[in-house]
Amino acid sequence: MATLMKTTHELRGPKKATNLSISSELLLRAKKHNINLSATLEQALIKELKVKQRAQWLEENRQAIAIYNQHVESHGVFSDSTREF
Prior knowledge:
This protein has helices at about 10, 25-30, 35-60, 60-75. The chain is an all-alpha fold. It has a domain at about 25-75. It starts with 7 loop residues before the first helix and ends in a 10-residue tail after the last helix.
């Protein structure tokens, strides 16, 4: 999981050439609008990695979160006595 936890800056290291296939129509339209395919793909991958990382973290911590929520429901939180609202 440590690999997924890298910041956006760390993910922008050295470039590596990669082959991929996309719709020819989509490629033509992107070129027409001067869309940088590499930058667009990197941003989409960063976004998707964040979504996957969050889902993985929630799954890995599901039991602890449930236990904590049950504790709060039964006993409240430590600051309940100091709140003024």
